[in-house]
Amino acid sequence: MKYTGVVFTERTRRLCFYVIILILTAGAGCASVESPKKSADDLSALKENVWALQKQTAELGLKISDMSNDLSILKEHLKAVSDKSVKDNSVSDKSEPVGKALKSEAPPEKTVSEPEKKNIQVKDERPQKTVESKAPPQTGAGINNAPPSPPSNIVLASSGAQAPIGQKFKNLDDNKMYKQAMDMFNSGEYSGAAARFSYFVRRYRTSHLTPNAQYWLGEAFYSQKNYDRAAIEFKKTLMRYPASLKTPDAMLKLAFCKIKLNLFPEGKKVLREVIDKYPSSVAASTARRELEKVDKNDKEMSEDS
């Protein structure tokens, strides 16, 4: 009986051992199946979060851009108001000498003593000669020959300058509006050109000319030596219109802005990027020359120090 009991106990132990091994193997298999699935879900959720964050960042950038454009339009409007004020002051300054001339032309008032008045009354018995009768008629720069007052159309013309850019361009299509902005830029009126290109980019977001307008907006600020703002506008060209023909030039001018701001390492990095991405472009040729010049200056400065 003892032997039978021992055999039964040994079988039971082996059976329990196999059951435990089976359970552990099944659990490990489930864990190995669930782990990749969970990782894939986590990765997908992370990608969605990153995409949402990028979208929010892009929307915030557009809002900042719109606020910047509004500020440019407001500055243009304030400049027009200031110009009108200066013109009005100049007109009023010109009208003051006219009044002074009238006063200066009038002869000084002649005084007559009391004895003289009595002699005149006794001897001549004629009506007293008043001071007014001796005053000569107003001639020369007097009332009749006074310069005419400024025409009212001066005020109308200056008040028309106050009209916001949106009102000036509301009846123009994108081609005419772009041409006017370019004409202003080519004539050297960079501030007005910047305001008009900025308004163009906001109004015609889907126009085929918008990438060019965005680029020339940066050029307008660059021409005014506002390199910080120019760099922002050139970056917008690269981010919003990467397939534009202006992209190599925008990247090149971004590098120039960095160099003008004494950010030489960043400027050299962008120059190399132009050469790497657009090796056969005119911008790349210019970038090579500029990079050589910057490297030469760096070498000379290091030798001097």
Could you describe the 3D structure shown?
By secondary structure, this protein is mostly helical. Among the domains are: 172-241, Alpha Horseshoe (Serine Threonine Protein Phosphatase 5, Tetratricopeptide repeat), CATH 1.25.40; 245-305, no CATH class. It is 78% helix and 0% strand. It has 12 helices and no strands. The protein has helices at residues 2-105, 114-124, 131-134, 153-160, 165-169, 174-186, 190-203, 210-223, 227-240, 247-260, 264-277, 282-304. Helix 1 packs across helix 7 (190-203), helix 8 runs parallel beside helix 10 (247-260) and helix 9 runs antiparallel to helix 10 (247-260). The chain is elongated, with a radius of gyration of 43 Å. The termini are far apart.
Keywords:
Serine Threonine Protein Phosphatase 5, Tetratricopeptide repeat, single chain, transferase, 12 helices, mainly alpha, about 300 residues, TPR_rpt, CpoB_C, transferase activity, TPR-like_helical_dom_sf
Topology:
Layout: H1 2-105, H2 114-124, H3 131-134, H4 153-160, H5 165-169, H6 174-186, H7 190-203, H8 210-223, H9 227-240, H10 247-260, H11 264-277, H12 282-304
Helix pairs in contact: 1-7, 6-7, 7-8, 8-9, 8-10, 9-10, 10-11, 10-12, 11-12
Biased composition (Basic and acidic residues): 84-132
Protein name: TPR repeat containing exported protein Putative periplasmic protein contains a protein prenylyltransferase domain
GO biological process, one term: cell division
